[in-house]
């Protein structure tokens, strides 16, 4: 498994190398991990191009580039304006102008950006108490809104009284709209242009948009002017409200908008026309998004089409206007979808006669003001910005949720972590300005962006330096930065001369056919070696014939991990030798426990025992799987010498005098392995009489020692009497058991027979009639002549 840190190290290194940067400025724009070595004396080796100066920082240090020669400029953040957010209570005697109230901090800062290195700063937002509010009420005056107009006539003073609970600085204005004054939106007959309503209804002439009352703090003036308004009429159901919204947004001076909270209440009981619908009336010019109010009337409705939703979103955002759609229940789904497209907007359900409009406005304002959403101006190409919000109660948000915080009350403070990252330097200049602001608020943060496009050492560069082949380049940051059309390490060639045969010949080793050994490119008659994915792997040499990664390997390690690869040959560390530095000269790994090398049964080669006898094996030739055991090998000799018995009794003196015999009284007196520094074997063997004897075998300083227990451990003989008595008793007991079993079986059999007899007796039936073959011995004869007289 690859370590992620190592992977990233190699990955970044390959990015820096692959970029083939020819100057310090190009190098630092590749990635934030890339640095440039400006050491002009000893950094580059033979065959290396100047692009090898660009590498990741650790690789430059590993290649012995002095730290003061590594160019690695970093970005920075400077706060230019940092006015604290305003802390003020509503009942405070101190009255501040809108421009004196601060809700966002800081207000201006400068970021110095290097490609790939994000700069993060903190932005604080706090809802100020008693913040001024401008509210413009834009109402649909088509005929279906007649009863609504009656309820709005007293809206000014009632709403002023209600808004005093929120702010002491409140202004209100009023405008109305109907529809474009062309067919088929209205009837263009002369009579209908004067009074578009049918029957006896008295209506005013149709109009597109009218600014009735500029924003004012006089509620009674609002009531007076609204009371003078009359209903108008049109033909189709959708209204021209988008034309009116556009004019309210862009005509700041005529409406009287201040740089405070701006609310637009859009009241209607119908849908809306949008871009493209104007073609029905022959209007094809797109809405220009400019103010066209003359005498407070929109005069270009017949000339410009309705604005698109996207156009409205842009203008409302540019002018920091928050929209409240007060619509009837029938059109709630339509305006809910519109709310999803317009940031910082709300939808409220308007009763059939607008009697609940004040409550609707208060609820919508509380909903809008409880959420802060950050937006930024258009970003320069190659720039990205990310947000992280830290909201109320420490709730964090990232991604799109990182731009906003919800459920904010007056006086609550939230913060945002904003990261700005550049991927490249701008083509048209070294500085840009972007602005970040909360939607619906006039305050904004100005962010000045400065880009690091070159190294500090480039400022000291020597133009047309003689060190760059007769002045064909600028010598800066330890290398030549060639003029246009010149290449080479010292700008010694023009691009047209690079591939000539004469120059290529200088790049062939020993007049061979391979240019730069197929490991590099011939530039101006000099080999510039290729770069590898792994920055640790390097081609080198005059003809790129050398490298540091094609040496012999051992255990899958270059030079066995015990040397360095130089020009395809291993230079081994001390105590190692061999083509792959895999042969250790240290014999400590061959020492056996007895202090002998390979137990005296082999030689130590490259730190490994080579046993001279094939039957021995193991790390120190200590094992012999095919040899008889030590105990079995010496059993007969120990038996004959210690007990004058065994198979070698007759030849004991001749065959068994090779060891020294020591007798002990019992097995506890035998030597133990933990007490010895030499190999020791414990043995337990049995003789022909089934007696056990115990001994140990060891070799001490070439002397074989045998310790043996002087007494044999023989099993005792059998006791005859108990055996005979046991047999007799067993026979008797078995006989008695058989008799008892027989008797038990007979009793069971008799009982069964008796039970059977009793059962048959009970079932017997005796016949009490005469015997059918019985004949009586008496014969009765009747005298026929007898008359009974």
Q: What does this protein structure show overall?
A:
Among the domains are: 76-89 and 97-129 and 373-452, ntegrin, alpha v. Chain A, domain 3 (Immunoglobulin-like, Sandwich); 141-369, von Willebrand factor, type A domain (Rossmann fold, 3-Layer(aba) Sandwich), CATH 3.40.50.410; 498-549, Ribbon (Laminin), CATH 2.10.25.10; 553-584, Laminin; 630-709, Hormone receptor fold, CATH 4.10.1240.30. It is an alpha+beta fold and 789 residues long. Helix content is 22%, strand content 25%. The protein is flat and about 150 Å long. A 6-stranded mixed beta sheet has the order 4-6-22-21-16-19, with no helix packed on it. It has a 6-stranded mixed beta sheet with strand order 10-9-8-11-14-15, with helices on both faces. A 5-stranded antiparallel beta sheet has the order 5-7-20-17-18, with no helix packed on it. A hairpin with a 5-residue loop joins strand 25 and strand 26. Helix 5 runs antiparallel to helix 7 (219-227) and helix 8 runs parallel beside helix 10. 33% of the residues are buried. The protein starts with a helix and ends in a 26-residue tail after the last helix. Residues 15-66 form the PSI domain. Residues 1-21 form the signal peptide. Pfam families: EGF_2, EGF_integrin, I-EGF_1, Integrin_b_cyt, Integrin_B_tail, Integrin_beta. It is found in: Cell membrane; Cell projection, Invadopodium membrane; Cell projection, Lamellipodium; Cell projection, Ruffle membrane. The chain crosses the membrane at residues 720-742.
């Amino acid at each position: 498994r690859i370590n992620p840190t190592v992977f990233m190290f190699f990955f970044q290194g390959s990015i820096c190398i692959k970029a083939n940067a020819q100057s310090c400025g190009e190098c630092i724009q590749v990635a934030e991990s890339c640095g440039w070595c400006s050491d002009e004396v000893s950094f580059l080796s033979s065959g290396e191009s100047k692009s090898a100066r660009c590498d990741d920082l650790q690789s430059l240090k590993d290649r012995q580039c002095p730290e003061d020669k590594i160019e690695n400029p970093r970005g920075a953040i400077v706060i230019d304006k940092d006015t604290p957010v305003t802390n003020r209570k509503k009942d405070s005697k101190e009255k501040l102008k809108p421009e004196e109230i601060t809700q966002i901090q800081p207000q201006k800062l400068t970021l110095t950006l290097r490609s790939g290195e994000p700069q993060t700063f903190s932005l604080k937002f706090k809802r100020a108490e008693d913040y001024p509010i401008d509210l413009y009420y834009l109402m649909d005056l088509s005929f279906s809104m007649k009863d609504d107009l009656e309820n709005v006539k007293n809206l000014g003073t009632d709403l002023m009284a209600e808004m005093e609970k929120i702010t002491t600085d409140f202004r209100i204005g009023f405008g109305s709209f109907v529809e474009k004054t062309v067919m088929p939106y209205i009837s263009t007959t002369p009579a209908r242009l004067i009074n578009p309503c049918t029957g006896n209804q008295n209506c005013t002439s149709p109009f597109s948009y009218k600014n009735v009352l500029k924003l004012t703090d006089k509620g009674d003036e609002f009531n007076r002017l609204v009371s003078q308004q009359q209903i108008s009429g049109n033909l189709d159901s959708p209204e021209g409200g988008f034309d009116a919204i556009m004019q309210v947004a862009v005509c700041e001076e005529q409406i009287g908008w201040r740089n405070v909270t701006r609310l637009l209440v859009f009241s209607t009981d119908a849908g809306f026309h949008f871009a493209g619908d104007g073609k029905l009336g022959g209007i094809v010019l797109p809405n220009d998004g400019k103010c066209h109010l003359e005498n407070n009337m929109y005069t270009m409705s017949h000339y410009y089409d309705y604005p698109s939703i996207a156009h409205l979103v842009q203008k409302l955002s540019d002018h920091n206007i928050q929209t409240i759609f007060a619509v009837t229940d029938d059109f709630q789904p339509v305006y809910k979808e519109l709310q999803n497209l317009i940031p910082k907007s709300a939808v409220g359900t308007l009763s059939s006669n607008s009697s609940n409009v004040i409550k609707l406005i208060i609820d919508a304002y509380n909903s809008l003001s409880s959420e802060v959403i950050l937006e930024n101006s258009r970003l320069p190409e190659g720039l990205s910005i990310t947000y992280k919000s830290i909201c109320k109660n420490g709730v964090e948000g990232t991604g799109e949720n990182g731009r906003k915080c919800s459920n904010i009350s007056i006086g609550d403070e939230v913060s945002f972590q904003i990261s700005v990252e550049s991927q490249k330097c701008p083509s048209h200049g070294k500085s840009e300005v972007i602005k970040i602001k909360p939607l619906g608020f006039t305050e904004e943060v100005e962010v000045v962006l400065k880009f690091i496009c070159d190294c500090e050492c480039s400022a000291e560069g020597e133009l047309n330096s003689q060190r760059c082949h007769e002045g064909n380049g600028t010598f800066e940051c330890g290398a030549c930065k060639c003029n246009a059309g010149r290449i080479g390490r010292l700008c010694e060639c023009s691009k047209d001369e690079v591939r000539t045969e004469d120059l290529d010949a200088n790049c062939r080793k020993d007049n061979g056919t391979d240019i730069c050994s197929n490991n590099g490119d011939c530039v101006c008659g000099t080999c510039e070696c290729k770069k590898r994915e792994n920055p640790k792997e390097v081609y080198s040499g005059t003809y790129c014939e050398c490298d540091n990664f094609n040496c012999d390997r051992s255990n899958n390690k270059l030079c066995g991990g015990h040397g360095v690869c130089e020009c395809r040959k291993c230079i081994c560390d001390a105590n190692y030798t061999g083509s792959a530095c895999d042969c250790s000269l240290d014999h400590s790994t061959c020492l056996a426990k007895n202090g002998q090398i390979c137990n005296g049964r082999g030689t130590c080669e490259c730190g490994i025992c080579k046993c001279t006898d094939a039957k021995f094996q193991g790390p120190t030739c200590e094992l012999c799987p095919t040899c008889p055991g030590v105990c079995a090998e010496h059993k007969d000799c120990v038996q004959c010498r210690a007990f004058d018995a065994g198979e070698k009794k007759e030849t004991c003196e001749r065959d068994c005098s090779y060891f020294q015999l020591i007798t002990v009284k019992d097995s506890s007196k035998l030597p133990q392995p933990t007490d010895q520094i030499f190999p020791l074997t414990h043995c337990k063997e049995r003789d022909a009489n089934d007696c056990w004897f115990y001994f140990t075998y060891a070799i001490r300083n070439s002397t074989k020692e045998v310790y043996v227990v002087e007494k044999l451990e023989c099993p005792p003989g059998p006791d005859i009497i108990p055996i005979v008595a046991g047999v007799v008793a067993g026979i008797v007991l078995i006989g008695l058991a058989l008799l008892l079993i027989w008797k038990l079986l007979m009793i069971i059999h008799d009982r069964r027979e008796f039970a059977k007899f009793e059962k048959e007796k009970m079932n017997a039936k005796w016949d009490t009639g005469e015997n059918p073959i019985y004949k009586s011995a008496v014969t009765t004869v009747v005298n026929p002549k007898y008359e009974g007289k």
